[in-house]
Amino acid sequence: MLSKQIKINHLSFQYQNHKIFNDLNLTVNQGEFILLTGNSGSGKSTLLKIIAELEPKFSGKIIAGSLTQPFSNWGMIFQDPNRQFTMATPREELIFTLENKLVDRSTALKRIDYASKKTHIQDLLDRPLTELSGGEKQRVALSVLIAMESDLLLLDEPFANCDSNNRKFLLDSLSLLHQEGKTILISDHDFSGYKELNPIVIEIKDQNFIVTSLPSTLPKIETHFSLPDKKQQNNLSYTFNSFSLSFPNKGLITSTNLELYSGAATLLTGENGSGKTSLFKALTKVIPYHGHLFFREKDVKKWRKRPYLAKVGQIFQNPDDQFLNVTVEEELNFSLKYNQNPLLNRSKLTSLLSKLKLDNLDKQVIYSLSGGQKRKLQILVMLMAYPEVLLLDEPFSGLDQKSVSDVIFLLKNYFLNTEHTLIVISHQLNQIDKLCDYHLILKDHKLFYTK
Amino acid sequence: MNPGLKLFLILTISFEISLIPNLTTNLIIISICLIYLLFKSISLKKILLLLIIPLFAATVVFITIYYFTPNHNLYHATILFTRIYAYVFLGAVFTETTSILSLARSLEQNFKLPSKFAYGTLAAFNVIPKIHTEVNRIRLVGDMRHYHLSFYSPTLYFKAILAAISWSNSLAEGMISHGYQEDKPRSVIVPVALTKKDWLIFSSILLLLQPILLLTK
Amino acid sequence: MKKLHLRDIILIALIAIIFGFIYLASDGLYNALTALLTPIGYGMLANDIMMGIWCMAGPLTGFLVQIPGAAFLGEFLGSCVELLAGEQWGAVNLLSGAVQGLGSELGFTFTSYRKYNWFTLFLSATTTTIVTYMYDFIKNGYSYFSTFNMILYFVVRWLSMLLFTCVLVKLIVDLLEKAHVIQTNQN
């Protein structure tokens, strides 16, 4: 049997005005296992979509070079597990997929049986997909590719919403599929668990590839935090009293008593899927909780939504969510119009913009900026809204080290003081102890301070 | 009964009673639907709800037509009142006895609806809870930035449409990556039957309806 | 002529769904208006006052996805989703959805799917008014009204359409154009 090859020849690709790839060359042989790494925004998703021929579409285009991709029965798993299913339940999705592949009924039933056993989703087959956890959904997504008998598997940051058990299970399953001879390309920013798979590691950097290898020891960033001293702290922002949280149907936090202090920045860590973002949702009155949660000595349930949200703001994971206007100029003018921050005004803002290299962007459509530019603007915009509590959900993703220190500078100089509170969810721990005073960890359904 | 054919039947009847004002027909339709729903052992609570939900709209129409039109015609007012009930009961007969998925499959298999319509709509339908969250987040961000977005605010719609564009891209990519190809044949794993009996029920109900509509008042 | 692809259909359905959510927010206003106007005999006028809000999805999708049938689907798929959601009004809403969709679509048909500007929206608002009014004339008993009221209901509905499906839709479309997300017929 002739072995198949994916060939990328001198490919240059641009998205809107940004060049993503410049003169890219890559050959993938059948049966290889490739791990793509690189900063967020470096083009990992784009590369996988180009190979799947999902790109170029409306805003992206190939400006030079070519792609040869002989695998017609490819399948893909996406980063956001919510956005890849057509049907309401795993069984219906499997049926839909196999109908697309012109599989007849009796073969289909066998394949569904096989694929659901392989991915341990037999009990989930008839449950609504909207009720499954991120990890469970990705197992369903893998079962679909197994049922399709795809020979090329493309996985784009598939573990971003998986807990460690599901991550390990899925990696083991991929290992088995690799042994069966499947070609696998996966993008991930986390190297753990790949060693046994012996992957070819390709880093995307500066619009091109570097072939590297897995780091022999995973870099460990040492962080040291102090524990809050109850006697010294009298400014409470939140008090948790027998607080518990479940979402959607999964218990995330059980009966917690805790105090959060104003005038401090607190780092919140925990595994993927442990419930950090859900905790933010409870803090912003998006989802309900059990027990008591007091903000400024009044139960959050009793706060009316609008006055509460004027005091509790959030930096969302996806910067696009934060914006309400079209161009950079409009967005900033809007913020200035509703500015509450005494430390910021038009002239101050202008000097900050040039410091952050965000000047001369006035007429640009905000949604077409680079990830880093969007992130910095997003933070500026929320600094001007100036809530008492600011929740930050992965504020450093997609930023280089210089930008990380810029962001920390902004938060320390234009936000943090005795009346203000920061709570930061972050995977990225470089420089984090320059910002955060305390460290909260969410582990085994418990939320507690740690060093 | 075949879901697609059932839908056409319900639609045809609804359409006919919209065009032809006829009290007897409305009452007969309501009674038959009610008996059918009871026969299908729909809970009494649900049936009670079916009686309450349209009451507001139906009463408003009745009051307006009976008290505030030149003829003060009780007969016309009653027709419009019962018509609204007939719609709701006809609708309930359909929704209470048919699954969405079987309707989509029936329209695709029995009535040659292009699969992109059937599954495109279904894909959108199945992410409604997520889309709802997304729209709520836009409002949330507005409040966090001290600007309340209400239903007449262009910004709210603008942001919502941007979200819809992004979701439609992702969902289409999701379908393609699960082997879907527009205008290509698909196999049938869960067949939906369209039998002679279905056609017989369909045509006899419609045949029976016509004389009632035309000959009674 | 270009035709609707999978992505367009999903987009149109999603927009129909999203508009559905936003309309729900205006439900309170509708009920209040109806309750307020019923004692003076104009309860049914609330329907005409709100009509423009309920018909925004059509012209918007017609403008956003510049392909024949898009405006119709924007309205019609909205009613399909209500049916799928198991609403009791579902079946009859499918008819209203088709009528509203037809009204919206006609405005674009009359400009041969070439012009996409104020005039197109004005035309679409007007055709929607005429078509939906004719349907309500028969279905909702407008034919029993006095001549004065017949005209009044028509004018109110038209104004509502102009305000929402023409002015508000144009404001939204301007934002979308500025953000470069409208697919035009030219490319």
UniProtKB/TrEMBL annotation, chain C:
InterPro entries: ABC_thiamin-permease_prd. It comes from the Bacteria. Keywords: Membrane, Transmembrane, Transmembrane helix. The chain crosses the membrane at residues 9-26, 118-138, 150-173. Pfam families: ABC_cobalt (PF09819). This is ABC transporter permease.
